[in-house]
Amino acid sequence: MKYRKIHIIGAPGSGKTYVASKLAALTNIKAHELDKVFWCQAEVAYVRSSEKERTTKLNEILAKEDWIVEGVYYKWLASAFDAADIIIVLNPSVFVRQWRITKRFFKRKFIDGDFRKETFASFLTLFWWNQKFDSDNMQRIVDFTAKNNTKINFCTNYDDLVEILNLEI
């Protein structure tokens, strides 16, 4: 495959983790969830990792020969955008994303039963933040990544990604 360092970014519920895991299985490139870098995994609630810890973890990933990173974050990821061979912006409709966020919350809370960080308050915060994501955060992401605009590809789903990457499935 032409691309060995892939950065996937998008709104909550856009399918980043799903797409990254399918792509990892198809290409044998390890996928990394940036949520696990940004949020302290030892905490029961959502607590940010320190900047030093985040930077260390990110640099360990970026030092690898190949990688897939996925997350909604952008401000602390300039080095990841610069190092990426391709940047994929997942951008399905807000209605699709809201449905996925809602479904994920109920699955984690009532089926999986062990996702302690997820609360109804955190779900509502995420839901309303996602509602305005396209007009606010997506614009900031596009501005932030402007110097890498030749690497940026927008898609709405996994099939679009497969086509962009010219993969055989």
Classify the secondary structure makeup into a structural class.
alpha/beta
* Alpha plus pi helix count: 8
The CATH topology: Rossmann fold
SSE string, helix = H, strand = E? Answer: EHEHHEHEHHHEH
Report how far apart the termini are. Answer: 12 Å
Helical fraction equals 40-55%
Low-confidence stretches: none
Lateral arrangement of strands in the main beta sheet = 2-3-1-4-5
**How would you state the average pLDDT, rounded?**
91
Beta-strand fraction estimate = 5-15%
CATH architecture identity: 3-Layer(aba) Sandwich
Give the CA-based shape. globular
CATH superfamily: P-loop containing nucleotide triphosphate hydrolases
Rg (C-alpha, Å)? 16 Å
Main beta sheet strand tally, sense and closure: 5 strands, parallel
State the domain count: 1
CATH uppermost class: Alpha Beta
Number of strands: 5
Describe the structure in your own words:
The chain is an alpha/beta fold and 169 residues long. The protein has one domain: P-loop containing nucleotide triphosphate hydrolases (Rossmann fold). The chain has helices at residues 16-27, 35-38, 51-62, 78-83, 94-112, 120-131, 137-144, 158-165; strands at 5-10, 31-33, 67-71, 86-90, 152-155. Strands 2-3-1-4-5 form a 5-stranded parallel beta sheet. It is globular. The mean pLDDT is 91.
